[in-house]
Amino acid sequence: MARDGGVSCLRRSEMMSVGIGGMDSPPLDVDEVHVLAVDDSLVDRIVIERLLRITSCKVTAVDSGWRALEFLGIDNEKASAELDRLKVDLIITDYCMPGMTGYELLKKIKESSSFRQVPVVIMSSENVITRIDRCLEEGAEDFLLKPVKLADVKRLRNYLTRDVKLSNGNKRKLPEDSPPLTLSPDSPDSSPPPSTLSPDSSDSSSPPLSPVEIISSPLSSPIDDEDDDVLTSSPESSPSPVRRQKMRSPGLD
Amino acid sequence: MDSLAAQLQMQYRNYILSLYQQGFLDDQFTELKSLQDDGSPDFVAEVLSLFFDDCVKLVGNMARALDQTGTVDFSQVGASVHQLKDSSSSVGAKRVKGLCITFKELCEAKNYEGCVRCLQQVDIEYKTLKAKLLDMFMFEKQIVQAGGIIPQVDIN
């Protein structure tokens, strides 16, 4: 669950059994984009998850660079056949995170033979040109200024569907403005999400809390404090933030 | 339409507008509301709930960090301020975010008195916002109970 600070998604082994047509088929709908979101802030994880779900993406949200690498299997010594099944179409990560920054995560991903082709997008609340340039030079596809809005995510989604890599490795060109592709005819929200937002409510099986009850209920279990390392002080930001983006075609090195 | 529902809707509309006009909320809150739908009717409430949890935790961290007899580690205070600034920005809590920006500058200037005062303001501000938003949700509940639908409020 997103709340416990760990991997808010089905475990990889569970993912293997979720799919169409049995064990030999890809675990995820080939037409659905799978996004790995990395952010140490729980609030931001929930929001980005929602934004991505609305744009018909499957989302896995983790709270640190280490967990992202763990999820991808980059840090894993054992070569796993499961890695072939693990389809990640986009990685979106916060820049300022304790432990491993988004920039460091970006570098590790670009160093990995299995995942260097996956587009990586950096999010930051600070509009620092040197930071943006550094990330883009290291191979980031795009840089989003927080707070991230639906329009930002929709733009990402559009350029992603132009070059969706199918699990069999072929690049497939799709119309840029086509509606989100899924095999199921249902709207994005009706498909069961791989993660739940909160342990207390929003399960369809338990009676939902009203908004008043949700906000005024006593604190849930304390948010995991493990990753509360001291952040380095961030550089000054310019007074009028400009959304600086640079589009690079995925696939060009 | 039931006149009670219509009255409540008007009051609700005015209430929401006043929250924006008084600077409690900004367009990111509007954005969050637009992400809510029948499939996820409690999305805003859930995000806000997590945000207020964050406030409690981070304000606690800041208070502890400032309470060190001897040298205060301002970078530690600043780290929590940064996180709160990010969270408040993500939910559209405009006043809280504004205070965090000021707070951050005070941390960088290692202004102890300033930090302590600012922390008190942050504490008051997030609690005030929480009370306002609880009222907002209460309005929504009353409207629905009166048979009305919650109006979309056009901020512009």
Automatic annotation (TrEMBL), chain A:
It is found in: Nucleus. Pfam families: Response_reg. The lineage of its organism: Eukaryota, Viridiplantae, Streptophyta, Embryophyta, Tracheophyta. Belongs to the ARR family. Type-A subfamily. Residues 179-189, 197-222, 231-241 have a biased composition (Low complexity). Residues 34-161 form the Response regulatory domain. InterPro entries: ARR-like (IPR045279), CheY-like_superfamily (IPR011006), Sig_transdc_resp-reg_receiver (IPR001789). One of its GO terms (biological process) is phosphorelay signal transduction system. The keyword Transcription applies. This is Response regulatory domain-containing protein. GO terms for cellular component: nucleus. Its main location: nucleus. It comes from Brassica carinata. SMART domains: REC. It comes from the Eukaryota. The modification 4-aspartylphosphate is found at residue 94. Residues 169-253 are annotated as: Disordered. Keywords: Cytokinin signaling pathway, Nucleus, Phosphoprotein, Transcription, Transcription regulation, Two-component regulatory system.
UniProtKB/TrEMBL annotation, chain B:
It comes from Brassica carinata (Ethiopian mustard). One of its GO terms (cellular component) is cytosol. InterPro entries: AHP1-5/YPD1, HPT_dom_sf, Sig_transdc_His_kin_Hpt_dom. This is Histidine-containing phosphotransfer protein. It comes from the Eukaryota. It holds the Pfam family Hpt. SUPFAM superfamilies: Histidine-containing phosphotransfer domain, HPT domain (SSF47226). Keywords: Acetylation, Cytokinin signaling pathway, Cytoplasm, Nucleus, Phosphoprotein, Two-component regulatory system.
